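Just curious: can you write a single protein's sequence together with how it folds?
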Amino acid sequence: MKLLILAALLGITLAKVSNITVKGIAVCNKKRVPGLKIELMEEDGVSLDDKLATVNTDDQGNFNVFGKDDEWGTIEPYLFIYHKCRVKKEGCWTRTRYEVPQAKINGVYDMTYVTLDVAQADEKAVNCA
């Protein structure tokens, strides 16, 4: 029991808070896209990934999302952007994953224009009727 308590205290001591701000402009077919859901996630190798924050693009397609988390090392953040760009089936959305570079941790990652009409390796159809 003492060993378990010592391990928990050591884990708390070694964990540190890391943060990230991600900003950009969502674009489909050269047009800015308002009202898209943006989720800032943090990858956890052992358990379910953590949702750090959720925002929507504004009326000009801009987004700015901030999140932080305690981890043993640094956080491993990524974005999910939910959109209908390139969707062929009525009622479906695409969830596209975008990685955040480790060099941007504890700073700002400016994605500038996020071109949703360019297919990414990690995409999934969601909310299909």
About this structure: Residues 108 and 125 are 29 Å apart (CA to CA). The two ends are 51 Å apart (CA to CA). The chain is about 10% helix and 50% strand. The longest strand covers residues 16-28.
